[in-house]
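My main concern about presentation is that the manuscript never shows what a single data entry looks like. Each protein is reduced to its one-letter sequence and a matching series of backbone shape codes. For the editor and my fellow referees, an illustration may be useful. For illustration, here is how one protein appears when written out as sequence plus structure tokens:
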Amino acid sequence: MSQSAHILVVDDDRRIRELLETFLSGNGYRVTVAANAGEARERLRGMVFDLLVLDVMMPGEMGTSFAAGLRADKIATPVLMLSALAESADRIKGLSSGSDDYLVKPFEPEELLLRIRNLLRRTAVATPAIKQAQFGSCLFDMEKGELWRGRDAVRLTGREKEMLRLLVANAGRTVSRQALRSEGQDEQARAVDVQINRLRQKIERDPANPSLLQTVRGEGYTLFVESTE
């Protein structure tokens, strides 16, 4: 898929979150941030991530406990753990909790990038990307952002392409309104609802009674996909 990898950064230090978000975004990644394990779980309920960058020392639930919980829930998203704890025993504990790599603070930004690239390369082999998705009479090309309804091409705006890609990537799962907002914009939930209604006009047989793109009250939206390749 031509989309950049989506990384969830979990760290209780606001300054570090902002630095990592700026640095990783500047290197072509899509970045979402969370201040603690609770916020991270909320993000994971609404989005699919290619990688988690996870701090160990956080108030409430430690990063090691959070990583272990992910693995217990069969969530295989790769985890890069960050920690100021540099002893061998700390590294072993971090890796044993379910993380895939462990990087000691402070670290060189270039080393962080290399480790992220290596983890993404390793997992990309085992996780085939969705190229096309079929739902109802529609076929959506994830890479080109093209939507076809039968033999007719359907025009999509840039935002509609982004939203449809996210919905297809999370097919059958609820995607929150927050996740569907424009990256970097303070878009209101009502604006997302309007855009969803426009998408329904393009993919649903009866937009007033949607069967493909359904509302999950108080949470967000779910797209039901028949097949992918």
User: Anything to note?
Assistant: The chain has a mean pLDDT of 86.
